[in-house]
């Protein structure tokens, strides 16, 4: 909680009280507040990274990069809202000669939905946690945020929240704009509170689906943006040593505890996979995030290794230390396509840790149907092919299948490492997410906005982005009177 005596209802009340004043802040003022948060996080980097290393077992280099990503993401969102295009301000001038019938003055803009509850992730203690992408997007949209801290890094969550709240207050933002709660019961209770207007989550399919169902079952259902994980299949028309080394590196990164880890690599039947073992053998052991994740990975690894027809290419190891933490090295197995289909229950579930499955196939023409059958919803899907294969049309059906079932389709490279950019899509059809939206990149702001139209409103009652004097200097799309007679001209 924000403190030991604050109740869930009091947290919701503070967020609700802050909603209208925060929504009324100008993009410039809100952008300056986001930059102040970014500056504060950077100023406390040494302290925060030290806590994160102790609580998560992630390396200093990984955490340093992740904190940099987190603070610069805030700065990117600041520039995005100051630009104002995200508001999608539209003005239709009154038009007595409108071809369908007289048109009133109608003006539409995107407005904040209200208080947002963000369930923080375990595997990204900065980028998808207290001050991560969901919190940044909601704050940028003008929504108060309550973060439900992850139990895997409680000390880091409390310290980060204190830094964020202090920076927002120092930048003049209303009290109650940013709060932290702890505990599963408190998270569920707040999700059910009518004053919460949207939810965001990054974590397991089981928990994410449970929370999504709670959000949908409320007397007043609310949008719930849950990222539930993905197996991120990769399809290769060849498998040389360089490709296999890149594959193992992607699987092993951060001990495989990434939602974009390639869980399956499809290669031709005759591929030489001898490069896998030495690549995996060169990876040092890495601690898993917490004992619960370690136990779950141990169980998944046993199931995959024990699947009938699986050939072990790199067995890997799991070591439990005196505190119950597991330390792992990469495990890679190979199966035929028929085996994958026959033993899908053992093999298809996501393995959250350094484990992946290589699948041999006989004919690339069957891959589109295989993908649609086995992988209906993915954060990413990847194609590795030679330039002539991409150009001759032989992979068009596969690419179409990947685009229909994935949020991001890659050509070459590996899906781990998600760039924070305006064009990024980090989402995908269910079961990758509960709602197919993006939780990375500036488009993520749109999850926490709703359209409102004002008809024949006097100028003094219009929101600033819709007024003729445009005090916020945001882009406005105007449909002037008399234009309707020109409809269809561009299509002729």
UniProtKB/TrEMBL annotation:
Gene symbol of the encoding locus: aldH
InterPro entries on file: Ald_DH/histidinol_DH, Ald_DH_C, Ald_DH_N, Aldehyde_DH_dom, Aldehyde_DH_Superfamily
Keywords tagged on the record: Oxidoreductase
Chain ranges of the Aldehyde dehydrogenase domain: 6-270
Protein name: NADP-dependent fatty aldehyde dehydrogenase
EC number: 1.2.1.4
Molecular-function GO term, any one: aldehyde dehydrogenase (NADP+) activity
Top-level taxon of the source organism: Bacteria
Organism, scientific name: Microbacterium azadirachtae
């Amino acid at each position: 909680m924000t403190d030991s005596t604050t109740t869930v209802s009091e947290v919701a009340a503070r967020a609700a009280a802050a909603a209208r004043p925060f929504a009324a802040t100008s993009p410039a003022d809100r952008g300056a507040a986001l930059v102040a948060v970014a500056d504060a996080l950077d100023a406390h980097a040494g302290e925060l990274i030290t806590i994160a290393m102790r609580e998560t077992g992630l390396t200093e280099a990984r955490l340093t990069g992740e904190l940099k990503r987190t603070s610069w993401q805030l700065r990117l969102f600041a520039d995005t809202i100051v630009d104002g295009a995200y508001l999608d301000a539209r003005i239709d001038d009154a038009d007595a000669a409108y071809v369908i019938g007289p048109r009133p003055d109608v003006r539409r803009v995107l407005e904040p939905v209200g208080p947002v509850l963000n369930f923080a992730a375990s595997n990204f203690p900065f980028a998808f946690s207290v001050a991560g992408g969901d919190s940044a997007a909601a704050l940028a949209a003008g929504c108060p945020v309550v973060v439900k801290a992850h139990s895997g890094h409680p000390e880091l969550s409390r310290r980060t929240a204190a830094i964020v709240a202090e920076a927002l207050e120092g930048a003049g933002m209303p009290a109650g704009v940013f709060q932290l709660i702890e505990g599963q019961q408190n998270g569920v209770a707040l999700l059910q509170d009518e004053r919460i207007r949207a939810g965001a989550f990054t974590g397991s399919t089981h928990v994410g689906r449970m929370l999504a169902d709670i959000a949908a079952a409320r007397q007043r259902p609310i949008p719930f943006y849950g990222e539930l994980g993905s197996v991120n299949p990769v399809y290769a028309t060849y498998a040389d040593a360089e490709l296999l080394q890149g594959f193992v590196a992607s699987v092993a990164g951060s001990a495989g505890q990434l939602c974009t880890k390639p869980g399956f690599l499809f290669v031709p039947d005759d591929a030489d996979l001898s490069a896998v073992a030495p690549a995996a053998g060169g990876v040092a052991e890495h601690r898993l995030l917490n004992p619960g994740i370690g136990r779950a990975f141990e169980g998944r690894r046993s199931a995959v290794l024990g699947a009938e027809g699986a050939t072990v290419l790199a067995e890997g190891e799991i070591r439990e230390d005196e505190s119950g933490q597991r330390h792992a090295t990469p495990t890679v197995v190979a199966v035929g396509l028929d085996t994958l289909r026959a033993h899908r229950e053992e093999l298809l579930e996501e393995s959250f840790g350094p484990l992946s499955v290589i699948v041999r196939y006989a004919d690339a023409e069957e891959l589109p149907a295989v993908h649609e059958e086995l992988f209906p919803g993915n954060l990413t899907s990847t194609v590795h092919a030679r330039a002539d294969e991409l150009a001759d049309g032989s992979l068009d059906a596969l690419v179409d299948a990947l685009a229909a079932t994935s949020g991001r389709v890659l050509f070459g490279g590996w899906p781990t490492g998600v760039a924070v950019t305006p064009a990024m899509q980090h989402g995908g059809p269910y079961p990758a997410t509960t709602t197919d939206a993006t939780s990375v990149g500036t488009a993520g702001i749109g999850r926490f906005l709703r359209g409102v139209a004002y008809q024949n409103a006097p100028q003094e009652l219009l929101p600033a982005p819709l007024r003729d004097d445009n005090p916020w200097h945001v882009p406005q799309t105007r449909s002037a009177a008399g234009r309707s007679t020109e409809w269809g001209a561009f299509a002729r």
